Amino acid sequence: MFEATFKMAALVESNAQGQRVFKVLKHEDPVDDDGFLALVAMVYQQDVYRTLRVGDDLTVIVHLDLPPRDIERTLRFREDGRLEGEDVVEPTTDLLPLLSSLSEQFRQQVQAGDVLTILFQVQRL
After folding, report:
1. Gap between the Cα atoms of 78 and 57, Å rounded
2. How far, in Å, CA of 106 to CA of 20, rounded?
3. Which of 34, 52, 71, 96 is deepest in the core (most CB within 10 A)?
4. How far is CA 83 from CA 30, 32, 88, in A?
5. Residue 84, domain extent
6. pLDDT of 82
7. 44, 46, 61: which is closest to 95 by C-alpha?
8. Are residues 121 and 112 in contact, defined by beta-carbon separation less than 8 angstroms?
9. What is the per-residue pLDDT across 18-34, written as a single tens digit (0 to 9) for each?
10. Degrees, nearest 5: CA angle 2-51-87
11. What is the Cα–Cα distance from 80 to 61, expressed in whole angstroms?
12. Per-residue pLDDT tens for 29-81?
């Protein structure tokens, strides 16, 4: 059995205009909602997608530390390079719509000091 986990955590901060921003990289400026999703999508495309093989299960977990909450979806990687599963209307290679919808309620509720984490877990039997 093969298993790999890709984890991306962001510290929620407020910028000078009082808007919510996400500090993902220690030595980089915080990003807004769109920037955060773009970074998550980049990690998925550059690291996670390249790891997937036909028949693999990909579990996407969105986690908020306080109060502890998780949303989890498991998808199956198909022969045509697409993912299918819960909350995916048609098989796709683009997970951005799913990631956006899964994390949206948490992104709207977070406050400065919260930590929002997105995990990609690949399992191969």
Report:
1. 10
2. 12
3. 52
4. 30, 27, 8
5. 2-124
6. 95
7. 44
8. no
9. 899 999 988 889 999 89
10. 95
11. 24
12. 999 989 999 999 999 999 999 999 999 999 999 999 878 889 999 999 999 99
Contact criterion met (CB below 8 Å) for 54 and 77: yes
Query: What pTM was estimated for this model as a whole?
Result: 0.89
Amino acid letter, residue 62: V
Give every CB contact of residue 96 below 8 A, 6+ residues apart in sequence.
37, 41
Residue 60's alpha-carbon distances to 14, 16, 21, 43, 82, in angstroms, are 27, 32, 22, 13, 15
For the chain, what is the domain count?
A: 1
The CATH number for 17's domain is: 3.30.1490
